[in-house]
Design goal:
The two termini are 51 Å apart. By secondary structure, the chain is mostly helical. The chain is flat, with a radius of gyration of 26 Å. It has helices at residues 15-26, 31-38, 42-50, 68-80, 82-85, 89-94, 104-113, 129-141. It folds into two domains: 1-60, Arc Repressor Mutant, subunit A, CATH 1.10.10; 68-113, no CATH class. Helix 1 crosses helix 2 (31-38).
């Protein structure tokens, strides 16, 4: 028997999945057995069993400004070149994605949801001729 695969993180169980977990629990099965059988985490099964309601609560919060297709387009643009990767969120909203009429925060949130983060790039100093000769000499000396 192969070990159970890890279920995706932060996936909410649907009404039918919660109902399956509750029914199997009422039939006398353990939470671990139910989790392995249905492919959920044990914590998801425990929550579904402990919940008094089968229908999950509606998610709270503001709906996203960008659709999945727009986020796909944004991600493709970011991956297209080095200059695109280094553009600020503000520059993205004013430049290539100005027709979307969203703020820099919507762009930032969309990219963060796909796992992108921002970091300061380290400037690599140019390799001078003198340093090149020193490195070549060192490499020749340590060849064997």
């Amino acid at each position: 028997m192969s070990p159970p695969s890890t279920p995706p993180r932060h996936r909410y169980l649907s009404r039918d999945e919660r109902l399956q977990a509750q029914t199997l629990h009422l039939a006398g099965h353990t939470q671990t057995f139910i989790a392995n059988l249905l492919g959920f985490s044990r914590r998801q099964v425990a929550y579904a069993i402990a919940s008094n309601r089968v229908t999950p609560k509606k998610r709270s919060g503001r709906p996203r400004k960008l659709t999945d297709a727009q986020v796909d387009e944004l991600e493709a643009y970011i991956k297209s070149s080095r200059t695109a990767r280094q553009m600020s969120y503000q520059a993205l909203t004013e430049g290539p994605f100005a027709e979307w009429e969203v703020t820099q925060y919507a762009i930032r949130t969309a990219l963060r949801s796909r796992g992108y983060t921002r970091r300061v790039t380290h400037a690599k100093p140019p390799l001078t001729e003198r340093n090149r000769q020193i490195r070549a000499t060192w490499a020749q000396e340590h060849l064997h």
